[in-house]
Amino acid sequence: MCPFCYIGKRKFETALAQFENRDNLEIVWKSHQLSSDMITDSTKNINQYLSEHKGISLQEAARMNAYVTNMAAKEGLVYNFDKTVVANSFKAHQFAHFAKQYGKQDEAEEKLFVAYFTEGKNMDDDAVLIQLGAEIGLDTTALKTALENGMYIDDVLADIKEAEEIGVRGVPFFVFDRKYAVSGAQDSKVFLQTLEKAYKERELIDD
Q: Going by C-beta distance under 8 Å and a sequence separation of 6 or more, which residues neighbour residue 45?
């Protein structure tokens, strides 16, 4: 739900498209929450939340989000912060873990980003998540059961614990072969250079 995560995803994908060994990579999304105590409130938009959370004026919050909106637009993304619903992301992370079991985690993440940033949907609503699951071909009955029973809570918590152990303090945070890290929505050239370096070293080890 950090706006820089979606931007970072696009920049990473730009690098990935230029990486000649991309078909040999396994990409795994990990869960993390910067504001785990966030209370879902569909009556507020993200400008109001940011104003209250950071103790700044509504106008300043709107300016900050306008700046990020322009950054996103340069990557071909549409952010509608006036529609964004303030929601705890914990269930959305469970949804992503469910999708992972069916090889659709990346599709799920893309759906979540569009639903949250562009369409203004509530990411803490089971019905919304089930609809997103249906759109990428997931078993909605199994997904409904998983969300209602919290079947992937432990997976989300394990990811958060792992992030704390390796020192993640912000998102997005990309780890390559558990050796190199790129923090933030860096230029695609940074991602490409890191991909090439990590892959070359892996080839040397495998040889």
A: 81, 82, 83, 84, 85, 86
Instruction: To the nearest 10°, report the CA torsion of 100, 101, 102, 105.
Output: 0
Structure token pair of residue 153 = 């809570």
Query: DSSP secondary-structure letter at 34?
Result: S
Domain boundaries in the chain?
8-32+168-207, 41-86, 87-163
pTM over 0.70: yes
Tell me if 116 sits within 8 A of 123, measured CB to CB. Answer: yes
Contacts 24+ apart (CB under 8 A), 109-112: 109/9, 109/29, 110/9, 111/135, 111/136
Instruction: Show the beta-strand stretches assigned E in 24-179.
Output: 41-45, 85-86, 173-176
Q: Report the percentage of the chain scoring pLDDT > 70.
A: 100
Query: Which phi and psi angles does 154 have, rounded to 5°?
Result: -60, -35
Q: Which CATH superfamily is domain 87-163 in?
A: Glutaredoxin (3.40.30.10)
Q: In terms of Cα–Cα distance, which of 56, 144, 64 is closest to 98?
A: 144
Whether the Cβ atoms of residue 93 and residue 156 lie closer than 8 Å to each other: yes
